[in-house]
Amino acid sequence: MNDFFDKLTAIIERRSLIKLLLSGKKNKESNLKNVVVTIVELKKGYFLNFVYRYNTKDITKNYVEAEGVLLIKEALEKDFLNANVYSDSEDITMQIKNNGKVLMKVKKPSLDASPAFSHDKVKDRLIKTESNTYLRELGIVNADWEIRREMGDKYKQINKYVDLMKPYLDGLSLDGFNIADMGSGKGYLTFALYDYITNTLHKNVKMTGIELRPDLVDTCNNIAKKSRFDNLNFIQGTIKDAPLSNIDILIALHACDTATDDAIYSGITSKASLIVCAPCCHKQIRREFDVPSPLSNVTKYGILKERQAEIITDSIRALLLEASGYKTNVFEFISTEHTPKNVMIVGKRMTNENPDAGKILDDIASIKNIYGIKSHYLETLLSL
User: Fold this and answer.
1) From CA 26, how far away is CA 346, in angstroms rounded?
2) In terms of residue numbers, what domain contains 89?
3) Are 179 and 306 members of one domain?
4) Could you report the per-residue pLDDT of 301-315, keeping only the tens digit for each?
5) Packing angle between helix 2-13 and helix 65-78, nearest 10 degrees?
6) Is the dihedral of CA 184, 186, 188, 191 positive or negative?
7) Inter-residue contact 244 to 275 (CB < 8 Å)
8) d(CA 273, CA 172)
9) Does residue 271 form part of some domain?
10) Residues 262-275: pLDDT tens digits?
């Protein structure tokens, strides 16, 4: 532990710290998920910027460097088991075992020490930073509209998302969009898409974010008001029971397990022109697996069974969208560097083509038979 803090202090003193992440909660019931520490330069000098990430909010505080190091020590004594240090010279991983033993590894640097994006690159981004109120309120940019060092990946992610959505939006022959964003969370992607449609495409949009946690609903509505996004509204509710009418585009990103199926079902029954999902968790099909030998070896090992469940679950979802009259694409949303849940399913409603639903359902039945699956939740919802 002393070696770790000697290295960390030296990295901070020479201003080469890119990011420190404290994670691995000691108390599983704690609402504090992790802490991100970076160096910031203020009028009074250099400080350590702490972002405390809770389940429903982030809290940011600045401390002088010596006090910040003491707070990191305290956090590792009371709250966290892991510390990952990223600097321009090396990466350091420190882990506290249950028996109190401390393990430390030093590796070559993995992050670029330069600012997340140069000014020239920022100009090429679909979402601009200058005078962008919601990016400031969400903590992605600072008061000078510069991307905060630790939020570079998040800024990259929202631009990647808007870039992926762009061709689908261009392909819809609609004067305006009525959009439902199911499970909108902190609203990073919701705000970015609304911004792009209104300020870049110059199209009318009515957008509703549906989120279960009331704290996030209130926060996002306040940010929408500050941003003067008059047609963006957030409401409290579940994906399954969300009120929908005349929806053109339905979005559900990282909805857990069968909540993704509830969202797809809502989109299909609402005859949405576009359905966009990035599934998370695939528990229902994993529990259903009853694979006969010799294929049982494919699901013998936990991690491989989980990955197989993801593939089968999302394959059947894509096929059910096709059977319901949607042209479907499945592709990587963002790099696995940012999240392992990176598959996106996009269905575009076809008006001039009639799918061979019978053949598609026969194909689904064959897949289910191979893996001993009795039913897929979305199939049940659709009564197919």
Assistant:
1) 39
2) 2-107
3) yes
4) 888 888 888 999 999
5) 150
6) positive
7) no
8) 8
9) yes
10) 999 999 999 999 99
